[in-house]
């Protein structure tokens, strides 16, 4: 079942995708934003596991700089010096992160009203398709770009997000979802350090002094970044190697075959397994949240949530050694990430 609710803002809606277990995902077409994921925990309590706000108007405020649940684009994460070349032509982008561009610029997709392309209820899944048209040189990116984002939520508690895009010029793209998860339930705990995490990865991207990948891979074996064997997120989060970023804020290079991330809460027994077609995942432990009033007046602070931003490598337009996310003129782009929820 899908319920469509009006909001106080013209052309902005909330959609509730409800499965047969009465678990649900709430999504708005503002920023193609996930507002809630509500699941039944081990004690049969319906538990909201995402950070954010109660109303879409709060998401639309200028002081919402946190990308809660939002679709990020045209290019998620950072591009060094907010510029890149395609052929011999250089494109200057909107620098909204010092000298660099972050998550598509000052007016990224997280601030756009998406059109509603399709609402469909199949036998075991609910499907919502949102669409945004990004004009040539919006935030400096070349090409008129059509993006569709397909959300589906099924009776097996699998939420999938599929991105499809086409441009009339060669352009760089990188789309992700920026949901902050707290599997303890956002009402129960303001800290994710007790979550257990496993990532199929042997390397992260090394960062420069502006937190932009410098082109080198860092072997994470036996370092605080190593989650090949399951461990608590907080076990080594205060290590000296993470001092500059104040926690985890790093792109993991995903294993070519598995591309899997697993995380669970001992408190609720809720488990999340993420699978993606993409080659990277930014692990971000909400290091810069500070005294942010969220849902039900709960105050979010550092490490209140954790993001798993599946993505192409950040800054790949400027690093010859990185796999490119260049979308060629009139070719179709597609990527998909699945979030499977279950109880342990």
Summarize the SSE layout with pairings:
Layout: E1 2-6, E2 13-18, E3 24-28, E4 33-40, E5 46-48, H1 56-59, E6 71-72, E7 78-79, E8 83-86, E9 89-92, E10 101-102, E11 115-121, E12 125-134, E13 145-154, E14 158-167, E15 171-172, E16 176-177, E17 180-181, E18 196-199, E19 201-207, E20 213-219, E21 231-232, E22 249-254, E23 260-264, E24 270-276, E25 280-284, E26 292-293, E27 299-300, E28 306-311, E29 326-327, E30 332-343
Please characterize this protein's 3D structure.
A hairpin with a 6-residue loop joins β1 and β2 (13-18). The mean pLDDT is 96. The strands form eight sheets. Strands 11-12-13-14-30-24-23-18-21 form a nine-stranded antiparallel sheet, with no helix packed on it. Strands 17-28-25-22-19-20 form a six-stranded antiparallel sheet, with no helix packed on it. Strands 1-2-3-4-5 form a five-stranded antiparallel sheet, with no helix packed on it. With 344 residues, the chain is mainly beta. The chain has one helix at residues 56-59; strands at 2-6, 13-18, 24-28, 33-40, 46-48, 71-72, 78-79, 83-86, 89-92, 101-102, 115-121, 125-134, 145-154, 158-167, 171-172, 176-177, 180-181, 196-199, 201-207, 213-219, 231-232, 249-254, 260-264, 270-276, 280-284, 292-293, 299-300, 306-311, 326-327, 332-343. The radius of gyration is 19 Å and the shape is globular.
